[in-house]
Structures are given as structure tokens and as C-alpha cells.
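#structure-requests
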Amino acid sequence: MPVLPSRGAGPTLRCMRASAVGASDRGRWRPTNEDAFRVRTELGLALVADGMGGHAAGEVASNIAADVVMEELARRPPERADATGPALRAAILAAHAAVIERARREPDKRGMGTTLTVLALDLSTPGFHIAHVGDSRAYRLRRGVLELLTRDHTWVQEQVDAGRLTAAEARRRPNANILTRALGIELDESEVDTVAGAVEPGDLFLLCTDGLTGPVEDEDLLAILDRDLPLEVLADQLIEAANLRGGPDNITVVLVRALE
């Protein structure tokens, strides 16, 4: 795995041909921030999580899931590239179990849950693996083309897939954020989606919660990301774009760039 520098404890650094930064904002309407993100430099991992539940339980769920995934992968890192997908899936299922157990022990947190999207980058191959549950997304920008790498686990996405709604109609539906899968609710191994692919120098990966993709269209994401600016600046501009469009939810982004 490569070393991916993180933002939060200091300036962004560069090592082993990759650079990374993460940022999170409460938005304009939410009283608390229930999102979480992690970037583990020594593991080559990055993730975002979007918690849900009353009495700050969403914040608890997202942070439990984020911590457990990192702990599991630190304890049992995959030895081969083709084992990365199953390792990510197993770590997410362990996080799911931990969220359920915490809710069982603390009745005020019953019903809490979280999305989770994890990126594992191996620039020695070079390649990437993504595992995700919920509607937090992963994108890749390559040579001016922004590609959505994940599929939302939401009711409206199911309607789009079935041909009952267009993508534009789905964005306008008031129930657009109703999840069909989440950690802490009901989840089995087959419901953890994984995707893998090659990495090219210059690739830029975006992990984000729906506080970004809800108010900001993909073409606006592309207009921000497709510029030669420091990752910290791009992350701040993404968050600013969501807040300028109302900031209805917590906004979290992680950017990972493969360097020449």
C-alpha cells in the first residue's frame, strides 16, 4: 500500500507518488456534524462515513465504523492485491457488527446507522479498490472526465435503475436520501459493493458524503476539480460550493491524487 498523507494534523505532504487531504463542515442547518473521515498514511486507506440517528447517535455510528475499519485492516492487511476487496468487505462487516452492539448496549442509540465508503490505493500495482454501503460516493477524475465509481444504495436509485424515474427526477424527489442499505441496520456480505481498477498518474479520487452531492451537480464538481490547484484549496472550494447552495447537510470530502 502507498503512504497517503492526511489533512487535520498539519500540512499535506507527498510520499510514494500520492497525496491526500480530507475536510468536513457542519453545513448551514445541521446543529452537529455526524460525518466522519479517516486517512491512514501507513495503510494507504481513506474513507468517509455519514451517520444517522437521534441524540448524536449518528456521530457515534460514523466514528465507530471509521475506527473499526481502520483497526481491522491494520491488524489483517491484505497480502495480495486480489485479496483487498474481500478484506475491505470483511472490515465493513466488522464495523457493522460493532455499531449494532453499541446500540444494543445503549438504548438511546437504537436505530443508529451510517454509510461508509472506503478507498484502498496501491500505487505499486498500480490500482485501487473501493468498498461501500449507502449513498456516500467515490468519483475518479481522469483526463478531464469525472466518473462516478459507486452506486447509491437509495430508494430513488432503485427507481432510476428500474426505469421509473430519470436521474434528474430522482434529484428533485423529497425522499431522495432514503437509504436501502446502511451499517447498523440490516446488512449481509452480498450488500457490501466493491469495485476495482487501475490507477494512472494524475488520477484524482473524491470520496464524499451526500451533503456535497445533494446540492452540487456532477458538472459543478468537475468544474471545481479539473484545475491544477492544491488539494486543500479544492476541498475548501467543494465545501464552499455546497454551502453556497444552502448547505442543508453535513459536508465531508476526501481527495486523493496519484502523482507523476
